[in-house]
Amino acid sequence: MITLSQRLKKQQDQGVLNNRISVRDRLLARELQELAQVLPTNCLVNHDNVNDLSSFMLIIKPTEGFWQGGSFKFGVNVTEEYNMVPPIVKCLTRLWHPNISEGGEVCLSLLRQHSVDGLGWSPTRRLNDVLWGLLALFTDLLNFDDPLNIEAADMYRTSREEFQKKVNEYVIKYAID
Amino acid sequence: MRIEEGKAVSPSKSPTMADGVERMDNESIKPEKMFTLKKWNAVAMWSWDVECDTCAICRVQVMDACLRCQAESKRDFYGKQDCVVVWGECNHSFHYCCMSLWVKQNNRCPLCQQEWSIQRMGK
Protein backbone atom coordinates (compact mmCIF):
# COMPACT_ATOMS: atom_id res chain seq x y z
CA MET A 1 0.00 0.00 0.00
CA ILE A 2 2.77 2.39 0.93
CA THR A 3 4.62 1.81 -2.30
CA LEU A 4 1.42 2.26 -4.27
CA SER A 5 0.59 5.57 -2.63
CA GLN A 6 4.15 6.75 -3.07
CA ARG A 7 4.03 5.74 -6.67
CA LEU A 8 0.77 7.56 -7.22
CA LYS A 9 2.15 10.65 -5.57
CA LYS A 10 5.24 10.51 -7.73
CA GLN A 11 3.12 10.24 -10.84
CA GLN A 12 1.03 13.15 -9.69
CA ASP A 13 4.07 15.31 -9.08
CA GLN A 14 5.41 14.40 -12.47
CA GLY A 15 2.04 15.33 -13.93
CA VAL A 16 2.08 18.74 -12.28
CA LEU A 17 5.58 19.37 -13.58
CA ASN A 18 4.60 18.41 -17.10
CA ASN A 19 1.59 20.67 -16.97
CA ARG A 20 3.62 23.62 -15.80
CA ILE A 21 5.94 23.11 -18.74
CA SER A 22 3.02 22.95 -21.05
CA VAL A 23 1.57 26.20 -19.68
CA ARG A 24 4.90 27.90 -20.21
CA ASP A 25 5.18 26.50 -23.71
CA ARG A 26 1.65 27.60 -24.57
CA LEU A 27 2.44 31.10 -23.41
CA LEU A 28 5.76 31.04 -25.23
CA ALA A 29 4.32 29.85 -28.52
CA ARG A 30 2.02 32.87 -28.55
CA GLU A 31 4.56 35.36 -27.24
CA LEU A 32 7.29 34.34 -29.66
CA GLN A 33 4.86 34.84 -32.50
CA GLU A 34 4.00 38.30 -31.20
CA LEU A 35 7.67 39.03 -30.80
CA ALA A 36 8.41 38.05 -34.40
CA GLN A 37 5.69 40.40 -35.59
CA VAL A 38 7.06 43.49 -33.91
CA LEU A 39 10.75 42.69 -33.97
CA PRO A 40 12.67 45.75 -35.21
CA THR A 41 15.12 45.24 -38.05
CA ASN A 42 18.13 45.72 -35.79
CA CYS A 43 17.12 42.75 -33.62
CA LEU A 44 17.18 39.03 -34.16
CA VAL A 45 15.78 36.04 -32.29
CA ASN A 46 17.75 32.84 -32.62
CA HIS A 47 16.69 29.44 -31.32
CA ASP A 48 19.56 26.97 -31.08
CA ASN A 49 17.15 24.11 -30.74
CA VAL A 50 13.89 24.68 -32.59
CA ASN A 51 12.18 22.10 -30.39
CA ASP A 52 12.96 24.06 -27.26
CA LEU A 53 11.16 27.37 -27.24
CA SER A 54 12.31 28.23 -23.74
CA SER A 55 15.89 29.06 -24.51
CA PHE A 56 16.98 31.46 -27.20
CA MET A 57 19.36 34.20 -28.13
CA LEU A 58 18.37 37.79 -28.71
CA ILE A 59 20.78 39.80 -30.81
CA ILE A 60 20.59 43.57 -30.61
CA LYS A 61 22.46 45.95 -32.89
CA PRO A 62 21.96 49.47 -31.57
CA THR A 63 21.46 52.02 -34.34
CA GLU A 64 22.21 55.01 -32.13
CA GLY A 65 24.03 55.89 -28.95
CA PHE A 66 27.38 54.88 -27.49
CA TRP A 67 27.19 51.26 -28.62
CA GLN A 68 26.19 51.93 -32.22
CA GLY A 69 27.79 49.47 -34.60
CA GLY A 70 28.08 46.69 -32.04
CA SER A 71 26.19 43.42 -32.05
CA PHE A 72 25.19 42.30 -28.56
CA LYS A 73 23.98 38.81 -27.78
CA PHE A 74 21.62 38.13 -24.88
CA GLY A 75 20.82 34.64 -23.72
CA VAL A 76 17.17 34.35 -22.67
CA ASN A 77 16.11 31.42 -20.55
CA VAL A 78 12.44 31.04 -19.77
CA THR A 79 12.01 28.80 -16.74
CA GLU A 80 9.13 26.46 -16.04
CA GLU A 81 7.49 28.91 -13.64
CA TYR A 82 7.02 31.48 -16.38
CA ASN A 83 5.06 33.79 -16.37
CA MET A 84 4.99 33.95 -12.62
CA VAL A 85 8.73 34.62 -12.75
CA PRO A 86 10.67 36.70 -15.29
CA PRO A 87 12.91 35.12 -17.92
CA ILE A 88 16.58 34.90 -16.96
CA VAL A 89 18.58 37.18 -19.21
CA LYS A 90 22.34 37.24 -19.50
CA CYS A 91 24.47 39.33 -21.78
CA LEU A 92 26.81 37.01 -23.67
CA THR A 93 28.84 39.75 -25.31
CA ARG A 94 31.35 41.57 -23.19
CA LEU A 95 30.69 45.29 -23.14
CA TRP A 96 31.40 48.48 -21.24
CA HIS A 97 28.05 49.59 -19.92
CA PRO A 98 26.93 51.07 -16.58
CA ASN A 99 23.95 48.74 -16.29
CA ILE A 100 25.47 45.52 -17.63
CA SER A 101 28.40 43.99 -15.82
CA GLU A 102 31.40 42.65 -17.70
CA GLY A 103 30.28 39.23 -16.55
CA GLY A 104 26.96 39.65 -18.31
CA GLU A 105 24.56 40.45 -15.47
CA VAL A 106 21.83 42.76 -16.68
CA CYS A 107 20.31 45.40 -14.43
CA LEU A 108 16.85 45.98 -15.80
CA SER A 109 13.95 46.65 -13.45
CA LEU A 110 11.40 44.53 -15.28
CA LEU A 111 13.62 41.48 -14.96
CA ARG A 112 13.54 41.73 -11.18
CA GLN A 113 11.36 39.07 -9.66
CA HIS A 114 10.69 40.67 -6.31
CA SER A 115 10.14 44.34 -6.34
CA VAL A 116 8.13 46.65 -4.16
CA ASP A 117 7.73 49.37 -6.74
CA GLY A 118 5.59 48.70 -9.76
CA LEU A 119 8.55 48.39 -12.09
CA GLY A 120 9.54 44.79 -11.48
CA TRP A 121 8.32 41.66 -13.16
CA SER A 122 4.61 41.05 -13.37
CA PRO A 123 2.81 38.21 -15.14
CA THR A 124 1.16 40.77 -17.37
CA ARG A 125 4.51 41.43 -19.01
CA ARG A 126 5.60 39.54 -22.10
CA LEU A 127 8.71 38.79 -24.10
CA ASN A 128 8.00 41.94 -26.10
CA ASP A 129 8.48 43.99 -22.97
CA VAL A 130 11.76 42.24 -22.28
CA LEU A 131 12.98 43.02 -25.79
CA TRP A 132 12.02 46.71 -25.56
CA GLY A 133 13.61 46.90 -22.13
CA LEU A 134 16.90 45.51 -23.38
CA LEU A 135 16.86 47.75 -26.44
CA ALA A 136 16.21 50.76 -24.23
CA LEU A 137 19.23 49.93 -22.08
CA PHE A 138 21.26 51.23 -25.00
CA THR A 139 19.27 54.46 -25.20
CA ASP A 140 16.48 55.78 -22.90
CA LEU A 141 16.90 53.44 -19.94
CA LEU A 142 20.65 53.89 -19.85
CA ASN A 143 21.21 54.93 -16.26
CA PHE A 144 24.49 56.26 -14.91
CA ASP A 145 23.03 57.08 -11.49
CA ASP A 146 22.30 53.53 -10.36
CA PRO A 147 25.10 51.56 -11.96
CA LEU A 148 26.01 47.90 -11.86
CA ASN A 149 29.40 48.61 -13.40
CA ILE A 150 30.39 51.47 -11.10
CA GLU A 151 33.69 52.00 -12.83
CA ALA A 152 31.96 52.57 -16.15
CA ALA A 153 29.56 55.09 -14.60
CA ASP A 154 32.42 56.93 -12.87
CA MET A 155 34.36 57.06 -16.09
CA TYR A 156 31.37 58.61 -17.87
CA ARG A 157 31.06 61.26 -15.17
CA THR A 158 34.74 62.13 -15.41
CA SER A 159 35.05 62.12 -19.16
CA ARG A 160 32.49 61.27 -21.78
CA GLU A 161 35.18 60.98 -24.46
CA GLU A 162 37.12 58.48 -22.42
CA PHE A 163 33.95 56.50 -21.79
CA GLN A 164 33.08 56.44 -25.50
CA LYS A 165 36.64 55.41 -26.30
CA LYS A 166 36.50 52.47 -23.93
CA VAL A 167 33.06 51.46 -25.26
CA ASN A 168 34.45 51.49 -28.79
CA GLU A 169 37.46 49.41 -27.75
CA TYR A 170 35.16 46.76 -26.32
CA VAL A 171 32.88 46.88 -29.35
CA ILE A 172 35.78 46.34 -31.73
CA LYS A 173 37.21 43.59 -29.54
CA TYR A 174 34.05 41.67 -28.67
CA ALA A 175 30.98 42.95 -30.44
CA ILE A 176 31.70 42.93 -34.13
CA ASP A 177 29.90 40.25 -36.17
CA MET B 1 -57.19 47.88 -26.27
CA ARG B 2 -57.90 46.72 -29.79
CA ILE B 3 -56.62 43.29 -29.03
CA GLU B 4 -58.86 43.13 -26.03
CA GLU B 5 -61.83 43.93 -28.22
CA GLY B 6 -60.76 41.30 -30.74
CA LYS B 7 -60.61 38.71 -28.01
CA ALA B 8 -63.93 39.81 -26.80
CA VAL B 9 -65.52 38.80 -30.10
CA SER B 10 -67.22 35.73 -28.89
CA PRO B 11 -70.66 34.39 -29.77
CA SER B 12 -72.09 35.43 -26.46
CA LYS B 13 -71.14 39.07 -26.88
CA SER B 14 -71.74 39.43 -30.60
CA PRO B 15 -75.00 37.79 -31.33
CA THR B 16 -75.12 39.52 -34.71
CA MET B 17 -72.63 37.00 -36.14
CA ALA B 18 -74.60 34.34 -37.90
CA ASP B 19 -72.70 31.22 -37.07
CA GLY B 20 -71.89 32.61 -33.67
CA VAL B 21 -75.52 32.50 -32.91
CA GLU B 22 -75.79 28.96 -34.21
CA ARG B 23 -73.03 27.67 -32.03
CA MET B 24 -74.34 29.45 -29.03
CA ASP B 25 -77.05 26.87 -28.99
CA ASN B 26 -74.66 23.90 -29.06
CA GLU B 27 -71.90 25.08 -26.75
CA SER B 28 -73.57 27.65 -24.67
CA ILE B 29 -70.63 29.06 -22.62
CA LYS B 30 -67.44 28.14 -24.48
CA PRO B 31 -66.20 31.04 -26.59
CA GLU B 32 -65.25 30.39 -30.22
CA LYS B 33 -61.51 30.09 -30.93
CA MET B 34 -60.41 32.86 -33.21
CA PHE B 35 -56.97 31.28 -33.79
CA THR B 36 -54.75 28.58 -32.41
CA LEU B 37 -51.11 28.87 -31.62
CA LYS B 38 -49.47 25.94 -33.36
CA LYS B 39 -45.82 26.70 -33.02
CA TRP B 40 -43.82 29.07 -30.88
CA ASN B 41 -40.12 29.79 -31.08
CA ALA B 42 -38.78 31.64 -28.11
CA VAL B 43 -35.55 33.51 -28.61
CA ALA B 44 -33.55 34.69 -25.61
CA MET B 45 -30.47 36.88 -25.49
CA TRP B 46 -27.95 36.96 -22.70
CA SER B 47 -24.66 38.61 -21.86
CA TRP B 48 -22.27 38.62 -18.93
CA ASP B 49 -23.13 41.10 -16.21
CA VAL B 50 -19.51 42.23 -16.17
CA GLU B 51 -17.23 43.35 -18.90
CA CYS B 52 -15.92 40.13 -20.41
CA ASP B 53 -12.21 40.61 -20.05
CA THR B 54 -9.18 38.59 -20.85
CA CYS B 55 -7.21 37.46 -17.83
CA ALA B 56 -4.03 39.51 -18.08
CA ILE B 57 -2.03 36.71 -16.47
CA CYS B 58 -2.80 33.72 -18.70
CA ARG B 59 -4.44 35.65 -21.57
CA VAL B 60 -7.54 33.50 -21.70
CA GLN B 61 -11.04 34.99 -21.32
CA VAL B 62 -11.90 35.16 -17.62
CA MET B 63 -15.18 33.34 -18.23
CA ASP B 64 -13.31 30.35 -19.71
CA ALA B 65 -11.07 28.07 -17.68
CA CYS B 66 -7.54 29.44 -17.25
CA LEU B 67 -4.58 28.11 -19.20
CA ARG B 68 -3.44 25.98 -16.27
CA CYS B 69 -6.83 24.40 -15.72
CA GLN B 70 -7.14 23.78 -19.44
CA ALA B 71 -3.76 22.07 -19.48
CA GLU B 72 -4.55 19.96 -16.46
CA SER B 73 -8.18 19.54 -17.60
CA LYS B 74 -9.14 19.95 -13.97
CA ARG B 75 -12.77 19.15 -13.30
CA ASP B 76 -14.83 19.25 -10.16
CA PHE B 77 -17.13 16.58 -8.76
CA TYR B 78 -19.83 17.35 -11.31
CA GLY B 79 -17.42 17.22 -14.21
CA LYS B 80 -17.46 20.96 -14.73
CA GLN B 81 -14.25 22.91 -14.95
CA ASP B 82 -13.95 24.65 -11.65
CA CYS B 83 -12.08 27.81 -12.50
CA VAL B 84 -13.68 30.89 -11.03
CA VAL B 85 -13.12 34.57 -11.58
CA VAL B 86 -11.90 36.91 -8.88
CA TRP B 87 -12.41 40.68 -8.73
CA GLY B 88 -10.12 42.88 -6.71
CA GLU B 89 -11.06 46.08 -4.92
CA CYS B 90 -9.40 47.79 -7.87
CA ASN B 91 -12.07 46.22 -10.12
CA HIS B 92 -9.54 44.24 -12.13
CA SER B 93 -10.53 40.64 -12.74
CA PHE B 94 -8.41 37.52 -13.18
CA HIS B 95 -8.82 33.79 -12.90
CA TYR B 96 -8.69 32.83 -9.25
CA CYS B 97 -6.07 30.18 -10.06
CA CYS B 98 -3.81 32.68 -11.83
CA MET B 99 -4.12 35.32 -9.17
CA SER B 100 -3.55 32.97 -6.25
CA LEU B 101 -0.24 31.93 -7.82
CA TRP B 102 0.83 35.53 -8.24
CA VAL B 103 -0.15 36.90 -4.82
CA LYS B 104 2.13 34.32 -3.21
CA GLN B 105 5.01 36.35 -4.62
CA ASN B 106 3.67 39.84 -4.63
CA ASN B 107 0.39 40.89 -3.08
CA ARG B 108 -0.38 43.55 -5.66
CA CYS B 109 -2.63 43.73 -8.66
CA PRO B 110 -0.37 43.10 -11.67
CA LEU B 111 -2.29 45.69 -13.68
CA CYS B 112 -2.45 48.69 -11.36
CA GLN B 113 0.05 47.73 -8.62
CA GLN B 114 -2.49 48.42 -5.89
CA GLU B 115 -2.46 46.25 -2.83
CA TRP B 116 -4.55 43.21 -3.77
CA SER B 117 -7.70 42.51 -1.84
CA ILE B 118 -10.60 40.44 -3.09
CA GLN B 119 -13.86 42.22 -3.74
CA ARG B 120 -15.81 39.20 -4.95
CA MET B 121 -15.44 35.81 -6.52
CA GLY B 122 -17.58 33.73 -8.80
CA LYS B 123 -18.69 33.76 -12.39
Automatic annotation (TrEMBL), chain A:
The active site is at C107. One of its GO terms (molecular function) is ATP binding. Residues 23-176 form the UBC core domain. This is E2 NEDD8-conjugating enzyme. It catalyses: [E1 NEDD8-activating enzyme]-S-[NEDD8 protein]-yl-L-cysteine + [E2 NEDD8-conjugating enzyme]-L-cysteine = [E1 NEDD8-activating enzyme]-L-cysteine + [E2 NEDD8-conjugating enzyme]-S-[NEDD8-protein]-yl-L-cysteine. InterPro entries: Ub_conjugating_enzyme, UBC, UBQ-conjugating_AS, UBQ-conjugating_enzyme/RWD. Pathway: Protein modification; protein neddylation. Its EC number is 2.3.2.34. It holds the Pfam family UQ_con. It comes from the Eukaryota. It comes from Photinus pyralis.
UniProtKB/TrEMBL annotation, chain B:
Signal peptide: none annotated. Pfam families: zf-rbx1. Pathway: Protein modification; protein ubiquitination. InterPro entries: RING-box_E3_Ubiquitin_Ligase, Znf_RING, Znf_RING/FYVE/PHD, Znf_RING_H2. GO terms for biological process: intracellular signal transduction; proteasome-mediated ubiquitin-dependent protein catabolic process. One of its GO terms (cellular component) is cytosol. It comes from the Eukaryota. GO terms for molecular function: NEDD8 ligase activity; ubiquitin protein ligase activity; zinc ion binding. The keyword Acetylation applies. Keywords: Acetylation, Cytoplasm, Metal-binding, Nucleus, Transferase, Ubl conjugation pathway, Zinc, Zinc-finger. Residues 66-113 form the RING-type domain. It is found in: Cytoplasm; Nucleus. The keyword Transmembrane helix does not apply. Its EC number is 2.3.2.27, 2.3.2.32. Residues 1-25 are annotated as: Disordered. Belongs to the RING-box family. Catalytic component of multiple cullin-5-RING E3 ubiquitin-protein ligase complexes (ECS complexes, also named CRL5 complexes) composed of CUL5, Elongin BC (ELOB and ELOC), RNF7/RBX2 and a variable SOCS box domain-containing protein as substrate-specific recognition component. Also interacts (with lower preference) with CUL1, CUL2, CUL3, CUL4A and CUL4B; additional evidence is however required to confirm this result in vivo. Interacts with UBE2F. Interacts with CSNK2B, the interaction is not affected by phosphorylation by CK2. This is RING-box protein 2.
